[in-house]
Amino acid sequence: MTQPYSIAVLPGDGIGPEVVGCALAVLDAAEERYGFRTERSEYAAGANHYLATGELFDAIEGRLRDKDAILFGSMGDPRVTPGILERGFILEMRQRFQQAANVRPVRLYPGVPTPIAGLTPERCEMVIVRENTEGAYVGQGSTVHAGTPNAVAMQESLNTRAGIERVVDFSFRLALGRRRRLTLCHKTNILVAAGRLWQEVVKDLGALYPEVEVDYVHVDAMCFHLPLTPERFDVVVTDNLFGDIITDLGAVIQGGLGVATSANLNLDGSAPSMFEAIHGSAPDIAGKGWANPSGAILSLALMLGHLGEGEAARAVEAATVQVLGELPALAGAEMGATTTGIGSRIADLVRGGAADPSLVPDSLLATLATLAPSRR
Ligand code: IPM
Ligand code: MG
């Protein structure tokens, strides 16, 4: 039997532990069915741990660095000043582990209600790649005369050629295995310095990928093109802050934050990649069994793809897609649509090998293993 994958599990705050619990039950089922093993280490991280110990990411970094992957729930809590956990944990992890590409599929699954009238699954099948270590997220800035009427706040955005290149190159390679269209999303008419550098990199690297058609959309225009003509997009590459914003819009289009998922990929093998749903900790509904675990379970599928367990990854995604399609009918029924009800239905389908793999049409999961392999 091959060596088990070592997985760090960080359930975090709010609904994080519930949805990660479902993802782990699905992982159990996938291991049974597909004959691989994981060794999981769970770590306390998030608001309770911070309030009790004052510890943030740096306290745990050394224990995570050698893992094959990290499965992450959510973080954030009204008792902790905004920014402390987000910057001190999530952004620290993305930056210190050089998780350069935040890959966020935006796909409308069959049977999932979307607020966009008339939108069909065939028209909405894209991947947004968000630069994940730079831009406004570096946290450089200063305030002068704080608390007075003369207060001045400066907030900088860092853009390096090397940082842009690695995420744009990844996006071209991703597009090559898909519909061969790459859209740069930026605001080159206002953020001219950063915009110029992004455009230069896309143009220069584009010469190496002549098969990929290059497209450009301003981020404000993206807010109407994304919901109204999603078929225009295959792979979209964008800066950290724009990517944060437009992927929430993407999540709405695909049926809500509960469904949306992401991979934070380290592209050079220097540290583990991290897999998380896009939703936050939703403290108002924590513990009620109302959270949809699909985003977390789909992040497990991305993790399995990255580890090279392509067949299991596809089965997990297909089972989740099947159950998502059944949800509208279940919503009023007893128990069927609770967090654990959804999670165990997905786990059962995976264990029985019962989900139809044609529900997962694209090659994203398979290509992840070649484009951004785990260190194993
Ligand atoms: C996301 C989240 C995070 C971000 C927060 C929680 C730090 O909104 O993953 O999109 O801004 O990147
Ligand atoms: Mg966000």
Rg over alpha carbons: 20 Å
Count every beta strand, where a strand is a DSSP E run of 2 or more residues: 12
Q: Strand-and-helix sequence, N→C?
A: EHEHHEHEEEEHEHEHEHEEHHHH
Widest beta sheet: strand line-up: 2-1-3-12-11-4-5-10-8-9
Question: How would you explain this protein's 3D organization?
Answer:
This protein is an alpha/beta fold and 376 residues long. The chain has 2 domains: 1-108 and 257-376, Isopropylmalate Dehydrogenase, CATH 3.40.718.10; 115-253, Isopropylmalate Dehydrogenase, CATH 3.40.718.10. Helices cover 42% and strands 18% of the residues. It is built from 12 helices and 12 strands. It has helices at 16-34, 47-53, 57-64, 84-96, 161-176, 192-206, 219-228, 240-253, 294-307, 310-330, 339-351, 364-371; strands spanning 5-12, 38-42, 69-74, 101-107, 125-131, 141-144, 152-155, 181-186, 213-218, 235-238, 261-265, 273-277. It has a 10-stranded mixed beta sheet, with helices on both faces. It has a two-stranded antiparallel sheet with strand order 6-7. Strand 8 (181-186), helix 6 and strand 9 (213-218) form a beta-alpha-beta unit. Helix 1 packs across helix 10. The radius of gyration is 20 Å and the shape is globular. The mean pLDDT is 94. Residues 86, 90, 244, 278 line the site of 3-isopropylmalic acid.
